[in-house]
Structures are given as structure tokens and as C-alpha cells.
Amino acid sequence: MIQTLEQFDAYVAAEKKIEPKDWMPDGYRKTLIRQISQHAHSEVVGMLPEGNWITRAPSLKRKAILLAKVQDEAGHGLYLYSAAETLGVERSDLVNDLLSGKAKYSSIFNYPVLTWADIGAIGWLVDGAAILNQVPLCRCSYGPYSRSMIRVCKEESFHQRQGYSIMVELMKGNEAQREMAQDALNRWWWPSLMMFGPSDKDSEHSSQNMKWKIKRFTNDELRQRMVDMTVPQAECIGLKMPDNELKWNDETGHHDFGEIDWDEFNDVLAGNGPCNEERLAVRNKAHDDGAWVREAAVAYAEKTKRKTKAKSTIR
Amino acid sequence: MSDTKNNWPLWEVFIRSKQGLGHKHVGSLHASDAEMAIGNARDVYTRRQEGVSIWVVPAESISASSPKDSEALFDPANDKVYRHPTFFVLPDEVNHM
To answer: Does pTM surpass 0.95?
Structure first.
């Protein structure tokens, strides 16, 4: 049984899983609540930019696929909220923190989705980056988070492929379609690289989270993986990466790539992205518009309970 | 922003993945009553044919053992290796039993 910090550290170092009722340091609990709830918020807000395109999908097939993808994102948000709640927080507090703007979500969703090709780029790049972030989280030391991530990763692979297949199809199309695909890549590439977070030298949570086996690889390691994975996929369908400094490095066995615009990263993070306000406003409206449904469901449940009680007393 | 302090009750969800297997815990969700809990569980946990049967149980109805009792509960089994068949060495001539 874990009772002290030393025991906890040894237990985690031995790759054993922590479960909700086990003793854990306050910092570990706090970090996990922050990370898991931010992750959940990202899934929920992630539905908004794509949801806008469901009615505008170019075919019934693509509409059905996008609908299924967006529904998955809702599911991912729910697995994650339920994992966060095992740490002793209330769902309503987490949701309220998102709605009030107190909690953060992935900055990537504060960029606008301008064309159908953006839906391709999002699945391919944004979900691709998410997979790279999430696969190591399947081995996270906290059991409920790890289990949620295993479910999420199984589903995420469909998201990435459907996005890439949109790009493949556009690149097989006419000049305008190819331009649309290239334009989407140009706009989404750098924000996708920013998804891995600040550079290792500026990352405030990294080392402790590595020790606690919440994080397995550094931001820069994962970002490099993203570049190495994506470059050949782009080349294969005739897309050009919007980075003049990008080139293969024989010595390192990796691609060298240009510097991220960290001012833009910090600016969007601080709430000044193109869509920060819109996303929160839409989420708040959906929440408020649904209030009567939640209230009605509670009233109905209470009424049914009263009726069942009355019946059993008669007997 | 409206106040959503009133959480719907928490339900634990158990799914039977196919006939012949037991129900297994898969996670939890909020719902106002059992019927909604089953509907939500279907949407959240069985989008890819993961289940043929769902149980939902109000989380507050589950009694659980505590990690601090785990030594008393589970350690006594440690020194009873004779409960496992491999404890008994068979004569070479007897291959299976």
C-alpha cells in the first residue's frame, strides 16, 4: 500500500499503475486534473470547427463520415471527463471552467476552418499530432487516464485517415482543388506543430511529469516525430510543406525544420487567436440552449421516482 | 452562462462485449435516470460494436474495498501456493493430470 511520497515514486518508477483510491501526492492529482480536463475541453471544443462543415460536406458519404468523427470527439470528451472525475472533481465545475474561459483547451481550435480542404488538413495534421501526443499517454501511470487514452487512440486513427483521404482526393482533382489542398496545408502546418507545446527549454511542466510517467517524451521529441512522419505523406500526394528550411539531415536521421513563430503561439494561447471568442460564445450558447432539456430530464426523473414510490407503498 | 451546479447522478457502465463473456467496467457517465444512462452508455461506449449488453449502476450504490485493507484482504493468499495445481510435482511417467 502506498502511504508516502517515497513509496509512490518507487511504485510509479516500477511502471505500476495508480488507481483512484490510492494515495497520491497533491501535485500529481492537481496536474492530472488540469491535463485531463484540458484534454476533455479540447475534444469538446474540437467539435465546433468541424461541426460547422457537416451541412456543407461535398457528398453524403463525406457527411456521414464527418458526422461520425464529430460524434467520436464528443465521446472522447466524455471518456476524459469521466477519468478526471475519478480524481475528485465535479463534472459541472469542469464544464463551468470551460464556459467561463478559466480553463484552457488546445489552441489549434482557435484557427478558422475556411474550406473543405481544411477538414482534410485537420484530420490529417491535427488528429495526426493528437495521436502522437496520445499514444504515449496510453502508458500513463494513472489507470483511468491510460484506459481512456487506449479507447481514444483506437478511434483517432480513423480520424487521421479520413482527413488524409480528403487531401488525396483533392490532389487528384482539378487545379483549383489542388490549390485548395495546398492552401489548407499552408495554414494548418505551423499551428499543428505548435500543438506539441512550447520548446523543451521553455516547458514548465515537463520534467516532473516525466518522473511521474504522465509524460513519456518531450514536446520537441514528439514534434520531430510529427515532421518526420508527415513530410513523406505530403510529398507522396504532391503537396509542398510551407517551410523553406525543411530538409532531410543525413547525420541526425531526421528532418531539419524552421523555427516556430512563438509569438503567434503565445498570442493564441493568451486568447487573441482568430476564433477564441467565437468558439467560447458558440459553446456557451449551446450549453444555455440545452438548459431546459437538462432541467426537464431531472424533473421527469424525480416525477418517475415519486410515482414508483407511491406504487410500492400501496402494495 | 447558466449555473450547472446540479450534476445528474453518476453511473458506472459495464458492457458485455459478446455472448459468453461477463460484463466489464468501461467507465462512467452522468444521466438523470437509468433509461437515459443506458441510452448515453450506448452512444458513448458502443459506437463500434463493442457491446451486446449494457449494465448501468448508480456509482453511489457500489461499495468498494479500500487500498488500506488490501494487505488484510489479499496477502493471506500469498502463502497458499498449494492452491495452484503446479505446486504438485507429478511423476515423470504421468504427463497430464
So the answer is: no
